[in-house]
Design brief:
Helix content is 26%, strand content 19%. By secondary structure, the chain is of the alpha+beta class. This is Cell envelope protein.
Length: 483
């Protein structure tokens, strides 16, 4: 019997004994989560596989979608969205437009810099310059799970110059001289998203000058020492498209590949063992198509089960019972709420902790009807009720269901606080935004946020929100349909 046969028997036989003894980890409502733990000793049934696979899909969706994006940005040089190789800092001296389609719900407020970090060989030192005090900036550190595991920037470290060491889970060193802080990731690959505030088109050269001073270098280079041995080359698998992730059981094969770079955490040992019992995250490549039809069907059905649970969360978000800001955070704030983590990735992957940014979102009007470009709406800030922020705010239009920016005749994708001097104020001191497909006319066009032909959502961003936003004292306006 070859090693592959041994491993296969382990998956569906002996390992099942341990797996079915595990307490089911709650990923949300839906099918009976105790089903797997109450199974008899022996090979897992199709229903037990389906339940575990559903949990794996909910757990794994952010990892797989993150991989799709990272592959486009740092691996696939033929992709029009390609940025730079791994471990190379890349700045984009522009804001996102409808041509940028890799990330759902993209931010069009700030020019970005991107750093895709392969931390297997050694850490990297990230340097930031002194930045003028009135300009917001941030470095958001995101692991493969899409947890925000740390921040550098205006809110957390101020606008002074600094050096920060980014290390992977296997690095055991101490903070080097000249480094302000060691930031540790739980995964071997990580992503750092830099946001640098842009005050207007005339400010772009200033942003470029700041971006040019951002720096990322290997620790060995920083210390003037010989570089360690390179990490083994990775045979990156081809990612699925965003659409394929929602329906193909190959999703689980991609997740299986990714988990080799996410060492098992003490708090997730039982969960990862459960996934291993159906072939996800073992030392043998998962091939769903090679399984029996009942097992293939179980994996496929699990995808639909997971989306049913997601729909319950999305209904709460759309209805205003759950703030989108609750879907993002670090491992401590989100804990084992993997369903929220999945919903966060779908609503706007790489969303910030709410202390860094909040995202009040409107999918329905005041009457409870879904927003649609066939109608006209107003979105009004009453006097004294502009979003309370320490940095700045914006209101962005997204066409649905793709959740992408909307092309329009005036190339306006958002309205934000730097635009206030150009907006027309109401007689009482408030601001009315006209949300519609066609121009509201020359007298109101300064306040026009163009809508698409079909369904859409409005997402506010409050960067570095004040306490009034965090504690709920301030509430975002509700779109009102007009004739």
């Amino acid at each position: 019997m070859d090693s592959n046969q041994v491993r296969r028997r382990r998956w569906w036989g002996v390992v099942a004994v341990a797996a079915v003894a595990l307490t089911a980890v709650a990923c949300g409502g839906g099918r009976d989560a105790d089903e797997a733990s109450n199974a008899p000793t022996g090979e897992l049934t199709a229903d037990q596989i389906r339940e575990i696979a559903k949990q794996a899909y909910i757990y794994g969706y952010p990892l797989v979608d993150n991989y799709r994006i990272q592959y486009a940005y740092f691996q696939d040089k033929q992709n029009p969205q390609y940025m730079a190789p791994w471990n190379t800092l890349h700045s984009v001296a522009k804001v996102f437009t409808p041509a940028d389609t890799t990330i759902q719900t993209p931010n069009s407020d700030t020019p970005y810099s991107f750093f895709g970090a392969d931390l297997r060989a050694e850490p990297f030192v990230l340097s930031v310059p002194t930045i003028d005090e009135n300009r917001y900036y941030s470095l958001q550190f995101i692991d493969q799970y899409t947890y925000n595991f740390d921040y550098v920037g205006s809110r957390t470290t101020g606008n002074k110059a600094g050096k920060y060491l980014l290390a992977g889970p296997k690095w055991k060193g101490e903070k080097p001289a000249g480094v302000d802080k060691v930031i540790r990731a739980d995964t071997e690959f990580a992503f750092v998203g830099y946001r640098t505030q842009l005050f207007g088109a005339e400010d772009l050269d200033n942003v470029k000058a700041i971006q040019a001073q951002y720096k990322a270098e290997p620790l060995s280079t920083f210390e003037g020492k010989p570089a360690p041995a390179a990490a083994p080359a990775v045979d990156f698998v081809l990612p699925q498209s965003a659409e394929e992730q929602r329906k193909s059981s190959k999703f689980f094969e991609t997740l299986d590949f990714i988990l080799q770079f996410a060492p098992v955490l003490e708090t997730e040992k039982e969960l990862r063992a459960k996934f291993a019992s159906i072939g996800i995250g073992t030392d043998k490549k998962l091939d769903v198509a090679s399984l029996g039809k009942d097992k293939q069907d179980a994996f496929q059905a699990a995808i639909a089960d997971a989306w049913k649970e997601y729909d319950q969360v999305q209904t709460k978000v759309d209805g205003g019972q759950l703030s989108p800001s609750e879907l993002f955070g670090n491992r401590q704030t989100l804990g084992s709420n993997y369903l929220y983590r999945m919903a966060g990735a779908i609503n706007g992957i790489y969303g910030n902790d709410k202390a860094e940014a909040m995202y009040p979102t409107a999918a329905k009007d005041a009457a409870g009807a879904l927003l649609d470009g066939a109608n006209k709406y107003t979105y009004r800030y009453a006097p004294g009720q502009l979003p309370p922020v320490n940095a700045f705010w914006s209101l962005t239009m997204y066409g649905m269901p793709q959740s992408l920016l909307v092309a329009n005749p005036i190339d306006r994708y958002l309205i934000n606080s730097p635009m206030l001097p150009t907006l027309k104020q109401d007689t009482d001191g408030g601001y009315t935004i006209y949300v519609q497909r066609e121009t509201p006319g020359p007298e109101r066009e300064s306040n026009w946020l163009p809508a698409p032909d079909g369904p859409f959502r409005l997402t506010q961003r409050l960067y570095w929100p004040k306490e009034a936003a965090l504690d709920g004292a301030w509430q975002a306006p509700v779109p009102r349909r007009t004739p």
